[in-house]
Design a protein that fits this description.
This protein is an alpha/beta fold. It is built from ten helices and nine strands. The longest helix has 18 residues.
Length: about 300
Amino acid sequence: MRMRPTLSWTPDEDLPPGTTDLAPVVDALRAGGVLVLSGAGISTESGIPDYRGEGGSLGRHTPMTYQDFTASAQARRRYWARSHLGWRTFGRARPNAGHRAVAAFARSGLLTGVITQNVDGLHQLAGTPDVVELHGSLARVVCLSCGAVGSRQDLALRLEEANAGFEPVAAGINPDGDADLTDAQVGDFRVLPCLRCGGILKPDVVFFGEAVPAARVEHCRHLVREATSLLVLGSSLTVMSGLRFVRQASEAGKPVLVVNRDPTRGDRHALTRVALPLGPALSSVADQLGVRVDA
């Protein structure tokens, strides 16, 4: 029997409560050597919903799994139709105050690195260098047969030509760039093959049920070992891909600080969880540190 990936987590009643006190975050950044781990919550103020927060997309949408994508041509048709429509909105998203604050902390030498679980590229657009994209990027596509990597924008242009008149109205856009469409709206959407070998194209992202590449995980583990503290921004830490770094930092005696409005699976490992919206919270931290954030 094939196991489904973990999509949800129910908080225990004995989790420590959240706070609105930003002082521990300010102190950690002032000391330097901070590694940031960001999740979907940092991008909600850019118009990209998260999975599990209030109004999160998991309430209405089950993300595509790697197993379904590779096993079913109809699943791929459904995914690419929805993702093509979602890309039109997703690709126009711009960094918000939270992304810009992280970039400012990096420029000021307060960070040792940034690991993001997001696939939206907004940290890079805000000017943060050397971001580790734990789950990949929607800006790229990869062929599952020959391994060729291409531009998502180039594929979008090809899909526009192959599916002239495809203009359904989506019920919503999800953190993975997937739009909510019915099967009737998907219709006979035409999926395009790899130009090099004719193989199956997949967005260069880690789907649910797919493993993060081992070399990428080890690089992140190295960043945790080199950091003084770990600052989690906008992640519920439900999936092990991010939680393992929180556990690693905690086991090594490094402070873990979380800024997330809702409880997270990593709270019991954290020094504090600040339950505030990320944009205003990180802007306040920057002000207290005297760090200039670009408008």
